[in-house]
Amino acid sequence: MILRTMARALGCGLVVLCVWPSIARGQDGAIDGRVRDSTSGVYLSDVSLTVEEARRGTVTDLGKILDPIADKLLTSGALVCLSILGELWWWVTIVIVVREVGITVWRMIELPRGHVMPAGRGGKLKTVAQAIAISFALAPLWTLVGDGVFWLNWVLMGIALVLTVLFAVVAVNLTMRWFGGP
């Protein structure tokens, strides 16, 4: 569990390091296909491992704290890179990153009170939606199916954005009901 979480946090670095040369060259969206494939692979493997872990019930209290942080690092790093490359509007990145940081801070506030707040089903669905949207945005699918795939990318990112905001509201409401507010 801890090794997987550490690997995911390192995956964030991999995403940024793989995409950064294209950013530095000012290629506005022109990322090498191998880079896109490897970074998409980081996300897809993360989703499959998360699903497997939940199925087995091998989540620990430490994992409930560290795993979401690794998710947020991975997601935020990719979204920032996509925005720098001009492939994602900055406001989408800002909304998602602010939500992710806000929920993490909320969890940290609750920890000293003895409240470990694991991700609920909605939060897990949001994470999967984000991973799929980011994977599609990174994968060079237009080389296989044409430019029409960009519409699919926008729809997937839109779904991820809506779920991100929706389940932030749900998480805060549930926490306030369970624990009596901040």
Written description of the protein model:
The chain has helices at about 1-25, 35-55, 60-85, 90-110, 120-140, 140-145, 150-180. Helix 1 (about 1-25) packs parallel to helix 3, helix 3 (about 60-85) runs parallel beside helix 5 (about 120-140) and helix 5 (about 120-140) runs antiparallel to helix 7 (about 150-180). The model has no long low-confidence stretch (mean pLDDT about 75). It is mostly helical and about 180 residues long. It has one domain (about 1-180): Four Helix Bundle (Hemerythrin (Met), subunit A), CATH 1.20.120. The two termini are about 30 Å apart. About 80% of the residues lie in helices and about 0% in strands.
Number of domains: 1
What is the architecture at the second tier of CATH?
Up-down Bundle
Output the helix-strand order. Answer: HHHHHHH
Broad CATH class: Mainly Alpha
Number of helices: 7
Mean pLDDT across all amino acids: 74
What is the number of strand segments?
Answer: 0
Shape: globular
Percentage beta strand: under 5%
Distance between the termini: 29 Å
Class by alpha and beta content: mainly alpha
What's the layout of helices and strands?
Elements: H1 2-24, H2 33-56, H3 61-84, H4 90-110, H5 121-138, H6 142-145, H7 149-179
